[in-house]
Write a structure and sequence with these properties.
Helix 2 packs antiparallel against helix 3 and helix 7 runs parallel beside helix 8. The chain is globular. The longest helix has 28 residues. It is built from 15 helices and 19 strands. The strands form three sheets. The protein has a 15-stranded mixed beta sheet that branches. It has a two-stranded antiparallel sheet with strand order 4-5. A two-stranded antiparallel sheet has the order 11-12. Strand 13 and strand 14 form a beta hairpin. By secondary structure, the chain is α/β, with parallel strands linked by helices.
């Protein structure tokens, strides 16, 4: 076996471990358990196996001492992905399901901060020693999973024993309404140039404060991709009214401040889900503004726009205003060239039904449910407020016109109807050759630029229709097809969706932007001849 070249042994080891598409979860794990004994065959096999087993590590912060001991020599050079789950101090079983005290939260924040710094210090030491990563410069994907306390593990999420009886009470109510925050300054964390991708993931565990993500980003100047699944505000299960709106504002403003104070020359891809629950949106944002005092625009939205200028792909979800797409007029006076996205190919935005200033893009109302915990949903009660929504859509269209490499763009607002069915108010653009998501298309369709509307009975203004029709005209020319489609996202709350949802075009507008002449003299859709379609969420 030692007579074989190292490259061939490496390939054999790879195919032993490589999962098949038909593998079950258990079989995939079994394949990985086969590998360690093979490292005892010879030195060459040891190197081949370690190239696999130490390329991707998933650890808890309780494992950091072992990480230092085990990751020595060549093992650090093959590390490409590191996933970290912060572990917090334990607590007595009698406290399960009971809200943390202020002192306990403070203790957790301090403990969390120390562990995060410890992780970064280990990586910094390896980076400075020149022993991290096989490539030069090193490339590391760093991920943080939701934090846990050992006392959380194994407890049923919905039921606990209290006073000798089973009671329906969410165990995660202990930490609901609170984020884990860093209690240190950014400059107390090392600068890591080895991290090229940063991921922060979320499920049912304890949430990270949004500013935690921004603080990490500020110490990683070589990032090429960031992927964040964050909550903008920690909803208190006892009622959204208990959410600290000042803390929510502070998180947004700090996030914006950090984005404005640093640059990431290599950054290509940004995926950020910056979500707030619909109940919180309805009860907290209905009257409260998220803007700084005397501000006329949302600095959080504006900072994300500036970040997007040199990106290739951007996917955002959150509470935004029009400055996410287009600067204020006074900004353009100072810098007329401040609106250019030379590399943007994919641009997808999902926005909440309430704007950052507290005004509603869509009218909404709380609807009671029978769910013990999620006692309401927010029903969309009618057509959008055009005086608020149209400026957002116009800014979106103007931005798309400045993206010469754009292949796909999507702007949507998730909504619910009176029965709790989800549907999306959305507008999508496709460049020639790209296949539309969910739409029934022929060859003639895909050869042209397309703008698809899934907007119920609402119709765009002539200006908006013109702007969207001109997207990609300079680069591709020819005819643009604009269609109104039945909504493909009409799904009942909690279901996966209707794969066989029929996509019917309600009306089509085609015109040639290169000549300025088309089917209509004003290049607009004649809605008078379009028959109504009935979809869930249509406004009557």
């Amino acid at each position: 076996m030692d007579l074989l070249p190292q490259e061939l042994i490496d390939r054999i080891a790879y195919f032993i471990e490589a999962p098949l598409s038909s593998d079950t979860y258990e079989l995939k794990n079994e394949r990985r358990r086969i590998l360690p004994p093979l490292a005892t065959i010879s030195r060459r096999w040891k190197a081949a196996i370690e190239n696999i087993t130490f390329s991707t590590l998933s650890i808890q912060t309780t494992d950091l001492g072992e990480l230092r001991t085990v990751m020595k020599g060549s093992r650090r050079r093959v590390l490409a992905k590191l996933e970290v789950r912060p572990i917090l101090p334990g607590y007595a079983a009698r406290k399960a399901g009971h809200r943390e005290t202020r002192a306990e939260r403070s203790q957790n924040d301090k403990f969390f901060s120390r562990k995060i710094v410890e992780v970064l210090d280990i990586l910094k030491m390896w980076e400075d020693d020149g022993v991290l990563g096989a490539s030069s410069p090193p490339r590391l994907e760093l991920s943080f999973r939701e934090a846990q306390s050992p006392s959380d593990v194994g407890l049923n999420r919905n039921w606990i024993i209290e006073d000798g009886e089973w009671r329906r009470k969410r165990i995660d109510s202990r930490w609901q309404g609170h984020f884990l925050n860093l209690v240190i300054k950014s400059d107390e964390m090392p600068v890591l140039r080895c991290v090229r991708e940063l991921r922060i993931e979320r499920s049912y565990g304890r949430r990270f404060a949004p500013r935690f993500a921004a603080e990490l980003v500020s110490r990683m100047p070589s990032l090429e991709c960031i992927w964040f699944n964050l909550e903008e505000a920690a909803l208190d299960l006892e009622g959204a009214a208990r959410v600290d709106i000042h803390e929510r504002c502070a998180q947004r403003w700090r996030f914006a401040e950090i984005l404005a104070s640093a640059t990431w020359p290599a950054l290509d891809d940004v995926y950020i889900k910056f979500s707030a629950s619909e109940l919180l949106v309805a009860t907290c944002n209905a009257t409260a503004s998220l803007l700084p005092p005397s501000a006329t625009f949302d600095p959080f939205s504006a900072s994300l726009r500036v970040l997007s200028y040199n990106l290739t792909n951007m996917d955002l979800s959150g509470t935004f205003d029009a400055t996410l797409f287009w600067p204020l007029e006074e900004e353009l006076v100072v810098d007329p060239s401040a609106t250019a996205w030379p590399n943007m190919k994919s641009f997808c935005i999902r926005f909440d039904m309430v704007a950052p200033n507290g005004e509603w893009y869509f009218p909404g109302a709380l609807v009671p449910t029978l769910d013990v915990f999620n006692k309401h949903w927010v029903e969309c009660k009618g057509p959008p407020h055009d005086e608020r929504l149209v400026p957002l859509l116009v800014a979106f269209a103007k931005a798309l016109m400045k993206m010469p490499k754009l292949t796909f763009a999507y702007l949507a607002c998730p909504l619910k109807d009176a029965k709790g069915f989800y549907y999306h108010f959305n507008i999508a653009y496709y460049s020639p050759g790209g296949e539309a998501i969910g739409a029934i298309e022929g060859i003639d369709d895909t050869s042209a630029r397309r703008v698809y509307y899934e907007v119920g009975e609402w119709r765009p203004s002539a200006e908006l229709e013109r702007l969207l029709g001109e997207v990609g005209a300079t680069e591709h020319g020819g005819v643009v097809s604009q269609k109104f489609l039945a909504n493909q996202f009409a799904v009942e709350d909690g279901s996966e969706g209707e794969d066989d949802a029929e996509m019917e075009s309600e009306g089509v507008s085609e015109y040639d932007d290169s000549s300025g002449e088309g089917n209509g003299s004003d290049n607009s859709i004649d809605n008078s001849d379009i028959e109504e379609i009935q979809i869930r969420g249509n406004w009557h």
